[in-house]
Amino acid sequence: MEKSLRTIVIGADHRGLQLKDDVKRSLSEWGYLVDDRGAHTYDAEDDHPDAALAVGEKVREQEGGTGILVCGSGVGIAIAANKMAGIRAGMALTPEQAESARKDSDANILVLAADYLTAAQARRVAKAFLETAFQPKERYVRRLRKIKKMEQLRSSKS
């Protein structure tokens, strides 16, 4: 998909708000459309599962949907996002981790940790994630099938 036509869905909680806004500006500069699902203002009482749900739902709606989530540690928002069927959220602190998340695991949401990344580092990580494609090697495809079965098993027990 041509990046100038590609929409990136982005969201954060209060601890990730500033970094989200920094990354959002870069996405626009790089030619992406940005769907900002919030937070839009600082609210110390907001919760990262709400941001994960807002971004995850939009990512699932789009063929080849891609998102970026930001919270303080990155851990809580990643856990929340990965509870949604069809979401493969991976946290990355380095461009190499981001490339691996896409190439090996077909991650569709990048998670950034605002407490551990500068804006410049986060931009490099996001750029690596967005510019890397899934490599459909047999073992990676096999693993994704197993993950899909796990999602189905979980939903059938709900």
Automatic annotation (TrEMBL):
InterPro entries: RpiB_LacA_LacB (IPR003500), RpiB_LacA_LacB_sf (IPR036569)
Domain of life the protein comes from: Bacteria
GO molecular function, one term: ribose-5-phosphate isomerase activity
Alphabetical list of Gene3D superfamilies matching this protein: Sugar-phosphate isomerase, RpiB/LacA/LacB (3.40.1400.10)
GO biological process, one term: D-allose catabolic process
Family according to the record: Belongs to the LacAB/RpiB family.
Entry protein name: Ribose-5-phosphate isomerase
